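User: Is it possible to get a 3D structure for a protein together with its bound compound? The compound here is FE2/S2 (inorganic) cluster. I've pasted both below.
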Amino acid sequence: MSAVMNSDVRSIEDLIASQKSGYSLDQRFYTDPDIYDLEVEKIINRNWILAGHASQLPEPGDFRVLNVGRESAIIVRGKDGDLKAFANVCRHRGSLVCLEAAGHVDKFTCPYHGWMYDIDGNLTAARNMDDGFDKSAHGLKPVSVGVVYGLVLVCFSDEPPSIDGAIRDIEEAMKMYDFENLKVAAQKSYAIPANWKLSIENYQECYHCATAHPEYALMHTMMLDDEKRERASGHMYENMEACGIKNIEIDYVDTAARPGEIGFGYGRTAMFNKYKTGSKGGGPVAPLLGSIKGYDGGQADLSFGPFSFLLAYNDHVVCYVFTPVDQNNSNCEIYWLVRGDAEEGKDYDVDELTWLWDVTTKADKEIIANNSKGVHSKFYEPGPFSGMEALEQRYIEWILAELQRP
Ligand code: FES
Ligand SMILES: [Fe+2]
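Assistant: Yes, that's possible. Here is the predicted structure of the complex:
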């Protein structure tokens, strides 16, 4: 999709100031390359992004690559057993060094002229360079990496938001599910031909669920308005304690985030009566997680930073990561987590485990793509939000605030 010629010549500051609260964003937020540049600087390269689970990198030399917008990081288990991350940019003339998405190596060899780096990022070989060439000054550049109860986060800023407060305050919730000892049972990528904000805006609201997601709408009270949802939650509150689940509410998400810290949140929502988990028919699809002792008829929503959202059912977790590819394309990466000791084929079946959110994400991909097409039309103008789009509105307000932050 080519850039749309927009006759609106206001400065970005004036444009931001003119956004009407309670309405979707102006077209230029999806089409103006200068606004995308600003997003890269102020939002995309400043925040933590979920890059998988530490259990995917058990041994020194195990690596994964995370691509986000213009950046690419190699996340690797170092010789000392710690996770490290490096810019996937060769110190010779800048080629991508690692072209595979994941694997195991004893060294990284740049495909262009063959410079070699060890798994700690040190340059170990560079053919035919002058005698005076200092290899030690040409190691891969480090990228910030953090681990929150097994969840691996990467940030392309040298001064990333602190994750210490999140680690401290979300401990009780994370330990219920034993996040640290979960494993990735399945992972899928969904390419979405739309600006990253449209992908996340769609995830933030369930106004569309009744029309777009018949499977999801049968199970989740999230598709009700607040009042009806509260009424439908009684059975969950009654059962929580017996199931070993604490009623925890944490809201340090985006706009409410403590200054200098990652935004994060945790909350629980009821499912409709007969559903135990997010599966076809509502029956369990994997062994219960952590210290959870039964099915209370609820499900938890979590978030870490502005790109990563998790749904914790009592028997599995679904992690959603939305990242920009460029201004007109985004990626949705989904990780399905189960107990670390669960065995495929015996304790869970990947098709059963992934069914709900695969079907739902394929439907989302289509509605987001259609949204993008309409937003590029000369007839598009910002429209009013429903009360069921309150979180989307909050997210947009956060974006506008971040774009103005020094
Ligand atoms: S760019 Fe990597 S070796 Fe030349
Ligand atoms: Fe959806």
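The pocket of FE2/S2 (inorganic) cluster (ligand 1) is lined by residues 90, 92-95, 110, 112-115 (CB under 6 Å). The chain has two domains: 49-146, 164-403.
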